[in-house]
């Protein structure tokens, strides 16, 4: 967890500066892609959205304490103008800076407090196996998420599963990550040819890739804790680096979508 602790320290020490995801990742000693996934799994926040929320939360506290110069508060929070600050503040709290200063409290604001990472909520993890995965064509339904909205993924599976025959091999693929913490999650099945995919489905070609493969044996509702342990504990200790390629969950005939039990494999792409 040390690199997340370093990243959080850097954010708390520099959030008023013009810091980037690359700056935070460099201090933490991880790649931007690695930090984005690990941070989201550990905290439930996208990195740069957390930076923004911390800036605005501290600004809200200053305003509630009676700060008279809103522009000075804006500048201290890293905003270059009153207008930019007000726009971001209203988007975050659904109130203007003037309203918060007038009410003199933050009881009706969803402030984001500083996160401490001195306790690791990891789970016991079996040693992975390593496989050279072949090229694959998959197709299915996709939605774009971020850490704060990823709880909606089961609803995407609910829409997808009626298209799946009992015992059919299916995948939950995470791809197209960006620096803002957004990613595509694709509920998909393998196809021999993209022409087999129904109209409106998203098609994805996955290149041959080396993977570390982990077994999640618990209920599907706890898979986020296994992903967290893979990204935040196993990967830093392994000395290996994640590749810029999709990672995915593999659901075979052992998994029962009605009960959520049966186990799932997690496939993490690795650099050669």
UniProtKB/TrEMBL annotation:
Superkingdom: Bacteria
Domain HTH araC/xylS-type span(s) in chain numbering: 5-103
Keywords: DNA-binding, Transcription, Transcription regulation
GO terms, molecular function: DNA-binding transcription factor activity; sequence-specific DNA binding
Protein name per Swiss-Prot or TrEMBL: Helix-turn-helix domain-containing protein
Species, as recorded: Janthinobacterium violaceinigrum
Lineage: Bacteria, Pseudomonadati, Pseudomonadota, Betaproteobacteria, Burkholderiales
């Amino acid at each position: 967890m040390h690199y997340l602790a370093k990243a959080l320290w850097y954010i708390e020490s520099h959030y008023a500066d013009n810091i980037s995801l690359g700056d935070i990742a460099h201090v933490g000693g991880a790649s931007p892609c690695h930090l984005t996934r690990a941070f989201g799994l550990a905290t439930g926040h996208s990195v740069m959205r957390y930076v923004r929320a911390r800036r605005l939360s501290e600004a809200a506290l200053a305003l509630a304490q009676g700060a008279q110069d809103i522009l000075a508060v804006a500048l201290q929070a890293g905003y270059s103008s009153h207008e930019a600050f007000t726009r971001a503040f209203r988007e975050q709290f659904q109130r203007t800076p003037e309203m918060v200063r007038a009410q003199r409290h933050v009881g009706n604001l969803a402030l984001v407090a500083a996160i401490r990472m001195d306790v690791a909520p990891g789970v016991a993890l079996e040693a992975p196996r390593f496989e050279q995965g072949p090229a694959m064509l998959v197709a299915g339904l996709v939605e774009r998420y971020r850490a704060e909205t990823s709880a909606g993924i089961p609803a995407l599976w609910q829409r997808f599963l009626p298209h799946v025959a009992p015992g059919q091999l299916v995948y939950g693929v995470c791809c197209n990550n960006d620096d803002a913490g957004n990613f595509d999650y694709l509920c998909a099945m393998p196809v021999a040819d993209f022409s087999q995919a129904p109209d409106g489905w998203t098609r994805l070609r996955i290149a041959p890739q080396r993977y570390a493969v982990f077994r999640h044996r618990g209920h599907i509702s706890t898979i986020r804790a296994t992903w967290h342990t893979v990204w935040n504990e196993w990967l830093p200790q392994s000395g290996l680096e994640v590749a810029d390629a999709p990672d995915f969950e593999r659901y075979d005939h052992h998994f029962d979508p009605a009960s959520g039990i049966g186990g799932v494999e997690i496939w993490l792409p690795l650099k050669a």
